[in-house]
Amino acid sequence: MSTIWDIYTKKEMISVSPYSKIYKIEEKKTKDFFVVREINKERYEFHFKIKFNQKDILKQFDPEMILQYYNNKDTFYIVMKFYIMNLEDYIKSREECLSTKEIHEILNQLNKIFKKIKNENQIIKDLKLSNILISWNKINQINVKLSKFGSKDYDS
Fold first, then answer.
1. Which parts of the chain fold into alpha helices (H)?
2. Which of 16, 104, 127, 151 is most enclosed, with most CB atoms within 10 A?
3. Residue 153 Cα distances to 20, 73, 105, angstroms
4. Distance of alpha carbon 44 from its chain centroid, rounded?
């Protein structure tokens, strides 16, 4: 039986919570990048005071983001799509200000995301530039996703 580390290599840690770690990973065959959330089951149960349940965990994530998952005795891994960077890093990396067209597109997509969240009666607890993920499609259009790694991700 293969493990996650037979297929992927850890590249860098992205974030840490009391019960999980998030890593940027690389698929060994294709060299494509992904993100894995590594959940320590014992710490999860201690933190939330509930029994670890794989189905409940997976419900918290956008199904379109999850590519695969691995379950072993102590740890549960969720492999997800990798977004290139967050909006904060993107703005800082640029020599010039964002163009009016870029700002319009980002705000337009965020508006759609906020409407979805409102319609689901959800609350955004941690809205900040670093939780707005961006990538570009094949025709160089920006894609925006609002994420807090541990809750459902939203895109437009």
1. 4-7, 41-48, 54-59, 87-93, 100-119
2. 151
3. 17, 27, 19
4. 18
**Exposed, middle or buried by CB within 10 Å (0-12, 13-18, 19+), for 145?**
buried
- For 4-80, the fitting CATH number among 3.10.20.30, 1.20.120.160, 3.30.200.20, 1.10.1790.10 is 3.30.200.20
DSSP 8-state symbol, 127:
-
Is the per-residue pLDDT at 44 higher than 60?
yes
Query: What would the pLDDT profile of 69-81 be if each residue is shown by its tens digit?
Result: 999 999 999 998 8
Q: Edge-to-edge strands of the sheet including 20-27? A: 8-16, 20-27, 33-40, 75-80, 66-71
CB 83 within 8 A of CB 134: yes
Separation between Cα atoms, residue 150 and residue 139, nearest integer Å: 30
Could you report the per-residue pLDDT of 84-95, keeping only the tens digit for each? 788 998 899 888
Give residue limits of the domains in the chain: 4-80, 85-155
Whole-model pTM: value is: 0.65
Could you please report the per-residue DSSP string of 35-55?
A: EEEEEEHHHHHHHHSS---HH
